[in-house]
Every structure is written in C-alpha cells, then in structure tokens.
From TrEMBL:
This is GroES-like protein. SUPFAM superfamilies: GroES-like (SSF50129), NAD(P)-binding Rossmann-fold domains (SSF51735). It comes from Mollisia scopiformis (Conifer needle endophyte fungus). Belongs to the zinc-containing alcohol dehydrogenase family. Residues 17-344 form the Enoyl reductase (ER) domain. InterPro entries: ADH-like_N (IPR013154), ER (IPR020843), GroES-like_sf (IPR011032), NAD(P)-bd_dom_sf (IPR036291), Trans-enoyl_RdTase-like (IPR047122). Keywords: Oxidoreductase. GO terms for molecular function: oxidoreductase activity, acting on NAD(P)H.
Amino acid sequence: MASSRDNLAAWIVEAKGRIEVRPSEFFMPEKGEVLIRVQASGLQPADAKVAKLGIMNLKYPTILGSPVAGFVEAVGEDVDKVKVGERVVSGTMIFTSGGVAKFGASQRFVIVDAREVVPIGNTAFPTAIATASQTPLAALYAPGALNMSRPNPSPNPAPANGKKILIWGGSSAMGALSICYAKLAGYTVISTSSPHNFPLLKDLGADYIFDRSDNSTVSKIKELFPIDYWFDTISLSSSLTPIRDILDGVKEQVEIITLLPPSMSGGEVVFPENVKTKMLLFRNKAEENQDLVQWMLGKGGYLEQGLTEGWIKGVPAETIGGLGAVAEGIERLHKGVSARKIVIEPWIEQ
Ligand SMILES: NC(=O)c1ccc[n+]([C@@H]2O[C@H](COP(=O)([O-])OP(=O)(O)OC[C@H]3O[C@@H](n4cnc5c(N)ncnc54)[C@H](OP(=O)(O)O)[C@@H]3O)[C@@H](O)[C@H]2O)c1
C-alpha cells in the first residue's frame, strides 16, 4: 500500500463542464465517517446525466462517482463497524451532500458515511463496485417499494414461492443484481435484454428471458400472467411503452417501481387509472427503512455476507483506466453501455 496521502481527483469544473485531473484536499473523517484509500470507483448513469445534462443542482467544482471500494485509511469518532486496513465498499454522499467534493468517488481518498461501509473480504475491488449497490435491494425489499420477502444470506435460493416478478432491463447494472436477489428469495423472474446478453441473464438465474426489442415480447409476457411484481430498471419510454402494452386490459391495481422521475423517463407514456408508476427514492436514514438498512448494511449483514462469500452476481466490471479516464467513462455511459459497470482505479497513472 502506498504511504503518500497526497490526494488527486478528477474534477468537473462546472455543470456540463470539462473534467480535469488535479490535486484535491486530504480530509480526516469526522464523527460517524470513514476515510477510504480508494482502489476502485464506479461511474454510473447519474454521473453522465450530471456531467452531460447538468440535471442536479450541485456545488461546483465537484468530484463525481459512486460507489467506492478500497482500504479503510482512518475512522472517525464512534465508528466501530470497520477497522483501519480493512477492505471495504461503500456508497457515497456526493449527491445527498449537494456536491461536496470530499464525498465524490473519483479521487484517491474519499470520506464516506460509516453506515454505508461494508467489508468485502477478498473480493476484487472492481467486482465489489459492480455488486454492492443498495438500489436493487431497496427496490425489491423496502416497505415503500415492492416490499417482497427478503432472502436469507445464502448462495442457495429459497424454495420457489410461486410468485412472479417482471424485471425489465435485466442486463443493466441494477437489473442484473435485481434478478440475482429475486431468485435468491425464491421468486420466478421474467426479464428482458438484447439477445447477446441472454447468457448473462440465464447465469443470473432468470426463468424467462425475452428480447427487449422484439415485437412478440409483449404477447409472450402476457402469457405468463399473473405477474405479482413489476420493476422497470430502465424507466424510459422504450421500457415503459412495452410494459404498458403488457398491462393493457388488466383491471387490478398495479404499481410499477421505476428508477427515474417522470420528467426524465418518457412522461409521454400514459397509463390507465389502475396502473401507477412509483420512482424509487430510497432514504437510508428514514425511520421506516431502518430494519432493512440494518439487514443489508449492518455488521455481518446481507451485503457483507454476500460480498465476502462471493455469491452476489451482477454485470461484469470493466476497469477503463485511472482518473484520466473519467471523462471517457462519462462519454461511454452517456452513449449507453451494455451489461457493464464502468470502473476507475485512481492510483493508475493515466
Ligand atoms: N433511483 C435510484 O435510486 C437509482 C439508482 C441507480 C440507478 N438509477 C437509474 O436507473 C437506470 C439504470 O441504471 P443502471 O446503472 O442499471 O444502467 P446501465 O447498466 O447503464 O444500463 C445499461 C443497460 O440498459 C439496457 N437497456 C437500455 N434500454 C433498454 C430497454 N428499453 N429495455 C431493456 N433494457 C434496456 C441495456 O441492455 P442491452 O444492452 O441488453 O440492450 C444495457 O445493458 C439509470 O437511468 C440510472 O440513472 C436510479
């Protein structure tokens, strides 16, 4: 492990502005925080939307990227969940803080909230980036989302419970993890992707896999009714339209969990009265989510067991370079990746 504490980051200078690599301040963790020496950091579609479209009100210059994996460098007061030197992964506070740069993942040292830090054992840092998201767990198991039955922490799926979930977009980073978790909990999974990603979805455990662009997919999924849970991990008109068509003629109340607000997700797709879309806005500090948060992020919890034992499956991680590659990563995400988690390794010299 290098001993230098000189920090370096990929800064975005302003909304929709250029990205440049230059030094950043080194911060020590405050109460309830952890300082991580970053070995791998993720870039996600939200980073591309901020960098290319300026979708959020952030304080600039700032540092994008989430989640982050590396070694614990220091812990703040009241933190006993992890120890210095431990290998961990964590979500970041870059968006919830409004862009405070010390919380962005695309740098060599980052401050995170201890509640989000999870030990990963010997799992490779890029793999941890691809598999550690809280979002799919929240979508499936949060009381304010699908509120499905949680799996036991085990690589062996629970006995089939006879309930079905449609996970539209199974080759997305969020969709792939959702398939894995739903299967482990004993659900029957129906999912969609492009045909070249069918082997991935099969490996994740999907029971029924359909071509997202094939006109016959709507009628084939209709044949699988009843479907108990609906999750659109893409949440664009290209996904909401076929889901609406699948639901055409259904009279019961249906709620579809989405991951984007209507303003960004093809608001032109009109659903009948009985079908509602609900964007996942998971607040891990909300009282109603504390039981779930403890179950997934607590010491020895579901994510820690899954990551250290290596049985959580998602899309493959692709390390594209060091901090100098952040701009390229943003471009690739903006154009759209296929079954890939884009990863940066900030100590690589490029
Ligand atoms: N609300 C939240 O808390 C939250 C959290 C995380 C992410 N998000 C949002 O959720 C969305 C997904 O994020 P992500 O990281 O999972 O995305 P991603 O991995 O970058 O998504 C890429 C995948 O999307 C698939 N895809 C694109 N259009 C599709 C369609 N019409 N039908 C089915 N699949 C389609 C592609 O499939 P093929 O290549 O197989 O065609 C590709 O594999 C993003 O918009 C992100 O901003 C929201």
